Amino acid sequence: MKKPHIVILGAGYGGLVTTKKLEKLLRSGEATVTLINKHSYHYITTQLHKIGVGTAPDRKIALSIPELVNDSKTRFMTGTVTNVNAESQVVFLESGEEISYDYLVIALGFEVATFGIPGIKEHAFGIRSFRSSKAIYHQITKQLTLYKEDHDPSRLTFAVAGGGFTGIEMLGELAEGLPKLCEEHGVPFENVKIIGIEAAESLIPFFGDELIAYTSHIMESYNIDIFTSTKIKSCTENAVQLENGLEIPCRTLIWSCGVKANSLLERFGLPLVKGKLPVDKNLLVKGTENIFCIGDCALFMKDEKTALPPTAQVAMQEADVCGKNLTALIRGENLKAFEYHHKGSVASIGDRTAVGKVGSFTMSGWFAAIMKRVIENRYLFVLGGPSLILKQTLLLKREQLSVQTKQH
Ligand SMILES: Cc1cc2nc3c(=O)[nH]c(=O)nc-3n(C[C@H](O)[C@H](O)[C@H](O)COP(=O)(O)OP(=O)(O)OC[C@H]3O[C@@H](n4cnc5c(N)ncnc54)[C@H](O)[C@@H]3O)c2cc1C
């Protein structure tokens, strides 16, 4: 009898953890598994800000997928998915290849949401992928180089839009990483301005007064100018225009104001809600019997009104159940209903401090920074056990990853 073919689209948090789960659960000969991803590396999104400022080696953040999967159990293909035909059960790749499937997992992740604000798409830098984070690094070093020629202060103004998790992580990293980059480029760090712009009344408004005060204090100690209750109206190549009429001369605006599901989903002919694929309690796309969707592409309703947020934590927990349910479907067993258990959140501010909340317990400072590392290592453990943690900690491979970045 022909073995069922499981095809997983996207090797991010959702796709890769599903793959690892299937490698554990499926017996030899039960199914063939193909994992398809745009690039041959998997990036640790939660640390992309480090690539943006050059404070971590490439291979610490971008892990080789062929080294993470077991090639006797999973066939890995580098390829860009361009469409899916759910009726004929075929995935189309940019290369012209067509891959038939019996079961499909859609885990194609997110895109940056720009909310139609003029100039953001063209001139701002999103923190979306390894490549887009490298583009930030190239922009910073380019501006430092050009500053030496024209002494234009807008080249040394680095603004971050969005004071949520990603925003404060980026601000902290800029504050810690820019002094070294300035020294390397012979530019006085005293001339650098780092600015945070947030539409809400405070940074990380969802974290409570104590952590907000702590974060604001750290930003102040780093000389970062924070504009709260401030909305961006538009942006050009060399300035950011605010709704309050102010214009900030600035050539590097880093955009971290929200994400939306991969717009590729619009082509699949499956019904979308808010740009995402609504899934049932078993994570099957509603109205289908063989297509799962997990992570940032999936709309899973926690209750009648609230959807689960787009986080790595959600994607990984969904992947665990998705792997179990694929195995159950193949064996003709009952499917498991997905239940999300929030384990807490921690955001780093540079290397030495962080803020976080686990249940009702809040934490800040070095203890939170250690917790952040524990969380990152736990993820490495899921992907490759203790040997991957050791390998990434020692990181013997220091070679740069060659990627093409968007030129602004
Ligand atoms: C800067 C930043 C920091 C974050 N920090 C945290 C955090 O601290 N904690 C937390 O829980 N969450 C965090 N998140 C959110 C988290 O990263 C996402 O929720 C998570 O990555 C979603 O997982 P996913 O599997 O749905 O998608 P992704 O991890 O984005 O994976 C999608 C994969 O699909 C691939 N892909 C996309 N399009 C195609 C295509 N056409 N063909 C082939 N492959 C394709 C991509 O290359 C990628 O490998 C952060 C996000 C950002 C941007």
UniProtKB/TrEMBL annotation:
Its cofactor is FAD. InterPro entries: FAD/NAD-bd_sf, FAD/NAD-binding_dom, NADH-Q_oxidoreductase. Pfam families: Pyr_redox_2. It comes from the Bacteria. Keywords: FAD, Flavoprotein, Oxidoreductase. One of its GO terms (molecular function) is NAD(P)H dehydrogenase (quinone) activity. One of its GO terms (biological process) is aerobic electron transport chain. Residues 5-319 form the FAD/NAD(P)-binding domain. Belongs to the NADH dehydrogenase family. This is NAD(P)/FAD-dependent oxidoreductase. The lineage of its organism: Bacteria, Bacillati, Bacillota, Bacilli, Bacillales.
